Description:
The chain has 407 residues and is α/β, with parallel strands linked by helices. It folds into three domains: 4-117, ATPase, nucleotide binding domain (Nucleotidyltransferase, domain 5); 130-261; 270-312 and 325-402, no CATH class. It has helices spanning 35-48, 65-72, 82-92, 100-114, 126-159, 161-166, 173-181, 185-189, 193-202, 209-219, 228-264, 269-273, 280-290, 300-307, 330-346, 348-359, 364-385, 391-394, 396-402; strands at 4-9, 13-19, 25-32, 57-59, 77-79, 312-316, 319-323. Strand 1 (4-9) and strand 2 (13-19) form a beta hairpin.
Amino acid sequence: MGITCGIDWAEAHHDVALVDTNGEIIARTRIDTGAAGFTDLLALIAEHCDSVEDIPIAIETDKNLLVVALADAGFTLYPINPRAVARYRERHGQAGGKSDPGDAAVLAHVLRTDRHMHRPLPAISEQGRAVKTLARQHQEAVWALNQTVSRLRSLLLEFYPQAVQAFPNLKHRAATTVLAAVPTPAAAAKLTSRRVVTLLQRSGRGNHPALAEQILTLLRAPALRQPPQVETAYGHTATGLIAVLVAMREAVDALEAQLGQQFEAHPQAAILRSAPGLGPVLAARVLGEIGDDPERFTHPNNLRSYAGTAPVTMSSGRSHYVKARKVRNKRLADACHWWVFSMLTKSAGARAHYDKRRAAGDHHNAALRNLANKLLGRLWWCLRHDIPWDETAAWPVLTDAFRPVAS
């Protein structure tokens, strides 16, 4: 093996180290994070290597602009987990010292001694990376929206509990439309049925006088009150939170629309959507985390381990037990959890497998993980061979059980 390169990246600069086969550091430098720094890095590498194939690069991330530029230039990159780098650092010293140039050298040594133990950056297409970006940002936006809803609910309980009674789901457009118009109990006392009907129509609920009367009754129900000035202050705060919530909800809808368009244009979209329980958003999240590099997961067990559905065996002396895998892609694990949960009502085979695991003693989450483990194996096969999901092939035992016997 020839020269290896380690890059310790930071917001303001990147430290670079080149190490030869004997473990000697042959070059060090610090570059800026822009185009000029990238040019300097290429010039440094060109001084010691003839081509990009001659020098693998280790870095502690897989998603910043430097990684994109290096991958586009043809380098083989190895994203190394920071926890692994910390353990490698301890091989060279126990004092606990740490520096950016030192970490760059440690990263280069990782590839010099253990390159075969690490996976290179997967070659995911531009379209696949776009799906991943939109899927992750959509999920982040949904999480932020839910946090804002929780903040609003907590605030209302402090001065306006009638609003929570009238609108248990504060994410609904009807809730935000009505509460934006009557953000305090004092404002609700002046509310009329006609006004509520108008607000509901504005939110898209149509003409529902009975619903309007129910909402009005709940909003005007007797309750404890804050002092007038305090209640007004709470009302201003609620109005601001409602405006934020509305804007975030619109952003989530826009991201979801863009995600759907990008996902449906991907060549593997039809295969993923053919699987029961995988709607457009969930399927896009699965694709975004798995990627479309055909060489990334050469065996279904690789994918299962990555998703965290494959268990881990702990064995030492007379101790031997199996437990759930904690180190995993948590976003993919979350998507798989909701996929299998949906499959219970959409696939007779999935339901039968889940019931079988429950009867064998698995608790709910363990049974779901076992089912997800099986489903991922089938999904890997479909993606590997470019064929749509087939329930008959996925659950052959169940199919045989219900096949009529020839007379």
